[in-house]
Please model this.
Amino acid sequence: MRHHITGLGRLVVSSAALAVALTACSGSGSTSGGGGRGGSDATGESAAAKDESSASAGVISLKSARGVLLNYAKVNNEANAVQDPKKIAQVEGGALLQQSQATFTQFSAWSEKEQNSYKVPFYYPVEGAHFYIPRKGAESVFWVDTRVTGKNIGKDRRRLIAFKRDKGGHGAPWKAVAVGELGRKSPEIQRDGDGFASVLGASDRVGDTELDDLRGLSQDFYLTGGKKAGSRFTDTAAVKDWKRDYAKRADFPDGCVNGTYHPGRTAAETVYGLKTTDGGAVALYDFGVDYVNWAKTDGLQCEAVMRIDNMPAVTDIYLDGRTTSTRLTRSDSLMAMAVVPPSGTRVRVTGYSFQLINAKG
Model:
């Protein structure tokens, strides 16, 4: 997966035609915030973090972590070139893998231009990358703040990637499980005296917020417009997108199509966090929503079925070529990055990706 993180919300659905061109994880939307560059030396690494055999060793050595990053980009590009779901499973896991494999499933429905663009290689250089490695004994997760380079990729673009140790014995021992775009201004990541970072899990709390709550609260914007979550989150561009999606869930010019959101699920249902120097956290997490449309029949101008046109990723891939339906459900996976203040309130969602993972009608 190229991991083109975007601020796409509910893609525009026209009158009864439901005209949507769903291109998986497309676009390069801007984000801000995310994992910072804490630490005291030029590379952000300490001597202890570099030595896996030392008494204060990390969950992985710096040398090995660099190898994981390089191998991830290499195998990722190989998988993208031929849309190989088994190959990408060698280096990805969880919701991130689910999004990538859904992209491969939908690839044949894309335009030739989109297909060619997706196959262009990208790179994660280790030069200038910042590795956040916890001490051995902590959860086996490490993070990387790295540049992303390649054709048509903006200068100084950076990503925050979480890698988790995989004990399944299939593919690489460390797999990417979450990714987010970094902006220019990032909070500093907390390190101890030896340079090790502190990772947080789903059940850990930051102020009034348990990190796992971020998933349900974000989902609430789609389900209710933010009745529960509105007071807990800052009104960032991402949150505005989610509110707008809810407000326009049944907004069709001809009035012949209705729509609503239901809770959905991803392949992981999890969150990964890093402590920041101010006592807060940076988090990468996923959540799912199901967007349901159905035909209205309470008007003379309305038909008993919806015509689904210009939506090949749905009709060609999931509906066996059918272009009409009385009811359509699209399952979407969202992966978001948020900065959580020490209080646990006024959470800032700095960006997210949006991927169709299934459809039925």
